[in-house]
Crp/Fnr family transcriptional regulator (Algibacter mikhailovii), 450 residues
Amino acid sequence: MSKCEQCIIKQFNSLKALTKDELVRISGCKTSRIIKKGEIIFDEGETLNGVFCVKEGICKLSKLSENGKDQIVKMVVKGQLLGQRSLISEEASNLQAIALNDMEVCFIPKSEIFADLQKNSKFSFEVLKDMAHDLRDSDDIIVNMAQKSVRQRLAETLVYIRDSFGTNPDGTLSVLLSREDYANIVGTATESAIRVLSQFKKEKLISTVGKYIKIEDLAGLKRVE
Amino acid sequence: MSKCEQCIIKQFNSLKALTKDELVRISGCKTSRIIKKGEIIFDEGETLNGVFCVKEGICKLSKLSENGKDQIVKMVVKGQLLGQRSLISEEASNLQAIALNDMEVCFIPKSEIFADLQKNSKFSFEVLKDMAHDLRDSDDIIVNMAQKSVRQRLAETLVYIRDSFGTNPDGTLSVLLSREDYANIVGTATESAIRVLSQFKKEKLISTVGKYIKIEDLAGLKRVE
DNA sequence: AATAAAACATGACAGATATCATATTTAATT
DNA sequence: AATTAAATATGATATCTGTCATGTTTTATT
C-alpha cells in the first residue's frame, strides 16, 4: 500500500500541514478503497468515523429534500477531503456522497484526525480555512438560488464545472453529468434542465459530443441573463 | 470598561474555550462599541481586522446580488461572533452586516484571535465546530431555496425566527423586520412577501400587533405547503 | 440480436412568482 | 400641524417554471 508521506495528493488539502511523523502514523491506519461510478460512499444520516481523502475521481454531495428530490450541494474532486464537516460537528452526515466516476479514496479514522487537530494547530488552521472557503461558496450559492433564473444558474454551472474540473483534450467538460444531475445542481425540474440545455445548443453556446458537453461560447454563457 | 474574563456573553461562543490569561489579554485590547439600528457594521468588500463579539442586539448579514437585490444569508444575535469567516480566510468580507436594532459589540483585533488559534487548540476546535454548524445551516438553506415555494420558505422563516430569537411577553416575535427584510431572507420580491404575509393573516396563521408579528398557529405554519 | 429499461427530448398547459401600477397607511421631517 | 417620504397593501398582467403526457434515443440486460 502506498504511503501518505509520499503521496502527492496531500499537497492539495489540509493534510499538507501535517508533519512527517504524523503522516507516517496516519499511513499506518488508513485504508484505501476503490469506489465504482454510481456507488454510494456514505448516506444521509450515516455516522462517519473518519474522513476520506480523494486520490482519484469525483463525487457529488447531495441532500434529499422533502419533496423527494435530491439537491446537489457540492462536488468533491481528487485532492480534496470528504466528510470533514460531519466529523468535526460529530453529527450524522447531512449529505449523501455518490461517485460520479470510478474513484480511489483513502479513509482516515476519526481518532487520527482528532489527535492531529489537538496537537497540530497549523493543521487545524488549514481545516478552518478550508471550511471558511466552503462557507463563502455556500453564501454565493444561496444568493444565486434566490435571485437568478434557471437559465442563468445553469449557464453558471457549466462555467463553474469547466473552471473547477477542467476539460478533455477535445474541449468537452471532463465531468460527465446526467441531465438530472444538472437539474439537481441548479434546483429545477429535469425537464427544465433538458430544455435549457437544448436552447443553449440552438444558440450555439454549447455543443455535445456523445454524452459530453462542450462549451462553444464561454463569453456568451457568462453573459446569459 | 467591562472585562472579558467576567463577561457572561462568552459562554455562548467559542471564546469560552479560552483560558483566563488569554481572556485577560484580550480584554486589554478589545474595544467596545455601540451601534444604532440600521447602521452598517461592516460592508461587503471591506477588510476586517478582527471579530465582533455581540453583547446585545441582532444584525443581518447580506450579500448584494447582481440584480441589485440584497439577499440575507444569516442573522447574528447576542452571544455570537461576527466576522470570523472573513478573518480566517484573510479575504475581504463577502457580506454586509447591518444592525436590526441597537447593538453593543466588542471588537477583538485579528492578532489576538490568530495568536489564540495558534496556541489554544481547544479554542480553534470550537471555532471549527461553529463553522461546521454554519455550513450545515447553509446546506439546508440551499435546499430550501431550490426546492420550496415562497409560501413555504416564508412560513419556515417565521418559525425559525421564533425559535432562534424568541418572543416578547405578548407573544410577538422579538425581532422586528420590514417586509423587505422578509423578502430578502426568503429570496422573493417585496410585494410577494407582503402578499403571502397578508394571506397568512387571513388564514389566521399569524396576526400583527403594530409592526410586530405574532404567530397564532404554529402547527399550521409548519404544515404550510 | 432482441428486449427492457433508462435517459433524453419536446409539446401543452397550469400554477407560481415577478413586475408594473396605484392606493393607502405609517413614519419622518420641516 | 403640514408636508414629504417611506413602508405596506392590492390589482392586473406577463413571464417563468413545474407537471403531465408522449415520443425518441441511448444504454443495459437477457
User: Anything to note?
Assistant: Residues 149-151, 188-189, 191-192, 195, 211 of chain B lie near DNA strand C (CB under 10 Å from a C1').
